[in-house]
Amino acid sequence: MHRVAIVAQPGIRSFDLAVITEVWGPDRSRSAVPPFELRRCALDRGPIALPGGLTLAPDRDLDWLSVADLVVVPALADPADPTPEPVLAALRAAHARGVPVAALCAGAFVLAEAGLLDGRRAVTHWWLAPQLAARYPAVLVEEAPLYVEDDGLWTSAGVASGIDLCLHLVREAHGAEAAAAIARSMVTGPFRTGNHAQYLDRPTPVADRTAEALAAVREQALRRLHEPLDVPTLARWAGMSPRSFARHFAAATGTTPHRWLLGHRLDAARRLLERTDHPVPEVARRAGFASEVTFRQHFGAHVGMSPRAYRAAGAAASATAPAGGDSVRKGS
Predict the structure, then answer these.
(1) CB-based contacts of 158: which residues, under 8 Å, 6+ apart?
(2) Torsion over CA of 103, 107, 112 and 118, rounded to 10 degrees?
(3) 203, 207, 306, 308 from 312: Cα distances, Å
(4) What number of other Cβ atoms are within 10 A of residue 137's Cβ?
(5) Which residues make beta-bridge pairs with 148?
(6) Rg of the Cα atoms in the chain
(7) What is the pLDDT of residues 94-126, one digit of tens each?
(8) Please, where are the H alpha helices in the chain?
(9) Using an 8 Å Cβ cutoff, are 124 and 110 in contact?
């Protein structure tokens, strides 16, 4: 059972709390999603006031971060509010233990206050990025991406990008199928790479039409990943020259068409390895790779293991997972 700790303190954003709870809280064992134990950890067990007149009841002390597999920090409604030192110390200890620590939106200010982001890349809502950079000059603040990772520390941009990061963390730990099942239940897109741009600068009618054309191309490409797609083909679908298409594509997504295709082909390959018993060469073909050798090289470089090892790890996890029941363990 994967243990997820929410770092709760007065003033955290209700939206962030709801996103974390929706991703890791419900029992989705019928959809092949592994069970999670989600706990609300705070300095003490008293009720916590949230913006909008809501209150939160913590169910664990900060000590629980020492047994968590993932720590998630919601944003404070006012990023200028200080975080108590025991909370910052618990975050530093979790990171030192090698546990992934993720902050949503202005939660990056909490990690920066703890000193965890010094010399590391981080992102927050584009409106707050200059403030983060000014207050913590040792942090390498980026304004464009939806989310970034540096040394096990994850930060995300505003609002919806918190959903993207949470789903990505599920995908990294439990596979593409689990993340897709959660996304389906939330009626949201299953995967946006962190390199997507936070916003389209200076939108105009022409920019809107371009964005629609690029979205249509991406949708068509996802349906035809098994085909030998290249930039000239995608550009032809968009009615642009290859050079113009590549430029507009990078501005809209934060990445190149080649890298975008590679990411989604690897995502498709993960699903095939998790859901089918197709041989690896067939998985490579269906995911759109030119050869099995190319597929193995890219998969190993991005996932950190071979396709066969990934499939075996998924099968072992499924064999040891409980058949059903409550996704939140009672007691500790």
Answers:
(1) 105, 124, 125, 126, 127, 128, 198
(2) 30
(3) 47, 46, 10, 6
(4) 10
(5) 155
(6) 21
(7) 999 999 999 999 999 999 999 999 999 999 998
(8) 14-24, 85-96, 107-113, 129-135, 160-174, 176-186, 205-223, 231-238, 242-253, 257-275, 280-286, 292-303, 307-320
(9) no
